[in-house]
Amino acid sequence: MFISFEGPEGSGKSTQARLLAEFLCEKLGADRIVLTREPGGTKIGEEIRAVIHSLRHHEMAPTTEFLLYNAARAQIVAEVIRPALAQNKIVLCDRYADSTIAYQGFGRQLDMEMVRTVIHYATGGLKPDLTFYIDVSVEEGLARRNHGHARGEELNRMDVQAREFYERVRAGYETLIREEPLRWVRIDGAREIDKVQSELRQVLVSRLVFLTANLR
Ligand code: TMP
């Protein structure tokens, strides 16, 4: 089973993905669970991540940014995600191709047909079975990011875009959720960490029960 986590900056999705992975490791055994992230998750992908997100690269063209995310994605799909799924593991991925549609397609306003074609090429058409959208408003997300920065967390190049960019990203996610309502589960991320986590666990357990029942 392939599960992805999406959401705006400061939604807390990385924390939620980690907590859900810990829960699943406890229930099913650590050898059944893979927690990874995009961009990154492989040696090559982490190096690409450093290039894309470096604040030194303010001159990066939108097309370069788009292709680098997809290069990192091609690697994680080939090296981590497909092999894990072939071994029947549960893969939890902190961001995946929907981020490119939301950020580069809607945010940077790149040609959407080209965006989808290249994603298909990078992933071989592999899509998550379930995608959690950790929902916080643009204001809340940016406020959390700034708060984190004030406490010493690093800002990356994607954290310092104009506000309209994040508004377009958010509208993009709304479109994606409308397109595939069965794959997406929207979770209110404005609540305390443990409340959000307990809803994630409930949804996941009910999905697993449903899938198991339908496989019999
Ligand atoms: P995060 O690890 O804090 O989620 O940061 C990743 C940043 O990269 C975030 O601003 C979203 C951005 N991103 C894209 O713009 N396109 C992509 O395809 C991916 C995976 C991430």
CA-to-CA gap between the ends?
A: 16 Å
CATH topology: Rossmann fold
Please identify the structural class as seen in this structure: alpha/beta
Helix content: 55-70%
CATH superfamily: P-loop containing nucleotide triphosphate hydrolases
Provide mean pLDDT, rounded: 96
**Order of helical and strand elements:** EHEHHEHHEHHEH
- DSSP summary, beta strand count: 5
Count of the domains: 1
| Radius of gyration, in angstroms, nearest whole number | 17 Å
How many helix segments?
A: 8
What is the highest CATH level, the class? Alpha Beta
Name the beta content range: 5-15%
| Outline | globular
Q: What is the topology, as strand order, of the major beta sheet? A: 2-3-1-4-5
CATH 2nd-level architecture: 3-Layer(aba) Sandwich
Instruction: Report the biggest beta sheet as strand number plus sense, adding barrel if it closes.
Output: 5 strands, parallel
The ligands found in this model are: thymidine-5'-phosphate
What features would you highlight for this structure?
216 residues, alpha/beta, Rossmann fold, 5-stranded parallel sheet, globular, binds thymidine-5'-phosphate
Description:
It is built from eight helices and five strands. 37% of the residues are buried. The chain has one domain: Rossmann fold (3-Layer(aba) Sandwich). Strands 2-3-1-4-5 form a five-stranded parallel sheet, with helices on both faces. The protein is 59% helix and 12% strand. Helix 3 (62-86) packs parallel to helix 5 (112-123) and helix 4 crosses helix 7. The longest helix is centred in the middle third of the chain and has 25 residues, at 62-86. The model has no long low-confidence stretch (mean pLDDT 96). It is globular. The chain has helices at 13-28, 43-53, 62-86, 97-107, 112-123, 138-150, 163-179, 193-215; strands at 2-6, 33-37, 90-94, 130-135, 184-188. By secondary structure, the protein is α/β, with parallel strands linked by helices. It binds thymidine-5'-phosphate. The site of thymidine-5'-phosphate has 10 residues, from helix 4. Residues 9, 38-39, 69, 95, 99-100, 103-104, 158 line the site of thymidine-5'-phosphate.
